[in-house]
Amino acid sequence: MNDAVFYTFQRATGMRPNPQEFTSRANAAINGAANAGDTMLLVHRTASRYTTYFAVSKSAASANKGLELAQAYGARATTVDELPDEIVETPHIVKLKFRSSDFGADTQYGADPAEMARSLSNAMPDDSWVGFAIRQVTKQETRRNRPYVDHRIGPGSRHLSKTKSALVFSIYVGAQSRTEAINLARDIPDMMTGFDLAARPVTVSNVNRKAAKFLGVAIAVAAVTVAADSAFDTLPDQVVSFGWLVAGLLTLLSLVGFVFGPPKRQVRRHLQRGFLPRPKSSPVFVRKPRKEGTKILRDHEGNQRIKTIKAFDGSYPFHKEAFLFEPTVFAPAGNPHGSSYAGAITASDREVTPELTSSHGPIIGHTVQGTSVPIPASSLRYNTMIFGEPGSGKSVLLQGLWGWLCQERVNPSGREHHPGADSTLIAIETKGSGVEGYLSHSALHGDKAILVDALDHTTPAIDPFDFGDLPMREQSERIVSALKYAFDDGSIMGRSAESLRAVYPAALAAMHYQIVDEDWMGDDASHRRLSQPGVTEHDFAHALLMGQTPETFDAIMATLSTLADRCKREGDLDAYDEITEAVDDMGTLIQMTPAARRSHTEAPRNKIDVLRRMGYYFRDDRPVTSFENVLRKHQAVVINVGSNDSGQVMEDEQSKLLASLLVYNLRSAIQRVCSSWEAQGRSVSLLCDELSMLAGSNEEVLMWMRDQGRSYGVRMHHGSQFPAQLNVKLLENVFGYHTVATYTMGSSKPSEVVAHEFADDVTGEEIRNLGKYQLLMVTNVNDEIQPPVTVNVHNFNEDVLL
């Protein structure tokens, strides 16, 4: 017979509480239920449903605690009679036990209330469940917990186990196989924001371990009794009888435990009653934590010595199966808005204005009523930004825009604001999966696109350090500036930048004058390393940053000095001045000892080593072109810095570095080549589905392209998964694009950020509830802002049979 009232929750339209409101409401609802009696939150995943069961006592139900939790979720609550049989009869059950508390503090505040349910619904296998058994915390447990937590994270620090809302809970997992149950249980701690303990999964077995211990002790008592009776002839019969009595009682207790107390049977019996087993009480004795200190000891002669007392973290103040945190650590698991398996919910359908319908530009899809929706060509001149979580459709839409641009290049419409034939197209593909789409759309319209595959040396490379015909010192400055921009951790500053400015003139001189072919002033080993095919100025820079031996450093500098003297004797004073100036720049490093030099240059050396490891891109047998050439010839180029068809994968660090270096170099080429292009009816369109990959360490280049690039004919069409991937200044900049659209974003904060920029009546919920390949778009028609429109976007991959 059930002792519980079961609530389930359905997703509901309308406003949902923000994270702060969710925290207060969920804490109040679950605390109120736990104060009234047994409480359980359980989520069940089948092949077609993700269902939450909130089990409370009848008194808690009469106080509407289930309805309160529904309000916290922004959902509708209904009651059911009992748990499904498949939950009670799940063949394999696992529970989590405390392992360690080395993770430090974490926080739940501001987290997306639906994220845990979203993660769980994806991670849970079919016909599995995750349950949380909940009880009140005792005063003694509260007193023990505070010093334990303060010792870990410092007194006065906020922690979710120290608040008045904190409750004790245990975590159980049920699945169709033991492996599935254990794997799911291992993942759960990472899904609970604010849960900063390490826990391990333990199988709930069919064997009562206490009963097994009783049986073991019974056998031991019996064995001792027999041995004693044999060894001591005078042993009183009463002692022997007592031994057999004890052994018999222990055996009886073990048999009772085996028959009536298997742990798995106990869990199932509790579930039949409506709840999981209550979290166990804390141990009677708990060792307190202590800080490291000293103690003065005296021996019997009065001599003193100081004894060091080591720090001790203290014993875990709860039973190993129990955890103390606010309910909002686990309550998000039951949020029906986190999983599409919890039932359908739709976004608002916003209609298109007549002005937008009648404008000319690429048709990207239709409204629910079937009205075609274009992005006006007049708006495309002022850039396009598309947000959306992975897999939502950003890349496909960008490939569709690329196809329209290719069509304009091959068959110019001649309409106002349309790009026409004199347009350069550059797509930077960051994942690799979109390469085929770009190339196929080019072929569909009879356009020819050049593929630059970073990992394929049979395709051409665009030299990211080609800044035109510049003096060596200015070329060096441009290289260092490009590196400062490309490395996004701000590491190339101060001393690092100073070191790079010193070594690159010498490295460029070493390459330009081919010093390894001159009278090398060093050992054979260093000569062999620097005379190999494929050596670049970055290898010389790395060596001068002490990436090789001190002898290599000395050899490069000695050879440059000797070469300068020879140039002076031969009357080549320009070369003499250039080399001498480079050598002089190295003065500070030359004066250091090798050890001091190595320490001084460690940070920039590590950065240049990343470039050296990209030899596949800079290899000397690879055809090379430049952005200047691409722009002058109005070429269409697809640059792949992701994986390729051969299964090769570019390291993320190298991919981001190369993409940032290329966009920095592109800006330089545009400044040299594209002056007054807009007035001439010429354009260069840059497309990338991950804008953050181009942004480098700051917003300088991309903001220039938006703010000043228009007169150069620059048009940008970008995508980004979330606003937070862009820094504040760049984010403000892209919201100034004339077309800003968004696919769905499951998380609350990013959707709210975008909604705030769209219109007063757009909510984050509306964005979160967008369907797949459905977007919300704000655009301009002849510089007039149009209201947001909901678009069912065309699957442009179907056009090229992808």
Quick gist of this model?
The protein is α/β, with parallel strands linked by helices and 802 residues long.
Shape call: globular
Mean pLDDT: 88
Structural class: alpha/beta
How many β strands by DSSP?
Answer: 26
Q: Could you name the CATH class of the largest domain?
A: Alpha Beta
Percentage of residues in helical conformation: 40-55%
Strand order of the largest sheet: 13-12-26-23-22-14-21-20-15-19-16
Q: Give the domain tally.
A: 4
The CATH architecture of the largest domain = 3-Layer(aba) Sandwich
Low-confidence stretches: none
State Rg: 35 Å
Number of helical regions: 31
Largest sheet, in brief, is:
11 strands, mixed
Strand content: 15-25%
Q: What is the straight-line distance between the termini?
A: 57 Å
The CATH superfamily of the largest domain appears as P-loop containing nucleotide triphosphate hydrolases
What is the CATH topology of the largest domain?
Rossmann fold
Give a description of the structure:
Helices cover 43% and strands 17% of the residues. By secondary structure, it is α/β, with parallel strands linked by helices. The chain has four domains: 250 residues, Vanillyl-alcohol Oxidase, Chain A, domain 3 (3-Layer(aba) Sandwich); 55 residues; 287 residues, Rossmann fold; 146 residues, no CATH class. An eleven-stranded mixed β-sheet has the order 13-12-26-23-22-14-21-20-15-19-16, with helices on one face. It is globular and about 120 Å long.
